[in-house]
């Protein structure tokens, strides 16, 4: 994804929309914030900023699809 901003306001709006905190990420992925930390440590989820942990929405949504497929495969009884 390549973006170009013509004003600070455009950049600010983009960041507000595209950056997620660890707790927002946990909510989207339907896991605990501790699990998000483990995923980062294990290299399964990349951060944009380490402290506080920030994530790109696009990356989190891709991970959500992956986790949903794994849940269907390994926990079919949850459906």
From TrEMBL:
Source organism superkingdom: Bacteria
Protein name as annotated: BH3463 protein
């Amino acid at each position: 994804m390549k973006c170009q901003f013509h004003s600070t306001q455009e950049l600010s709006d983009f960041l507000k929309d595209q950056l997620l905190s660890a707790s927002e990420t946990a909510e989207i992925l339907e896991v605990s914030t501790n699990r998000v930390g483990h995923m980062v440590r294990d290299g399964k989820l990349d951060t944009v900023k380490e402290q506080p942990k920030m994530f790109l929405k696009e990356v989190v949504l891709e991970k959500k699809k992956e986790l949903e497929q794994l849940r269907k495969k390994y926990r079919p009884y949850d459906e």
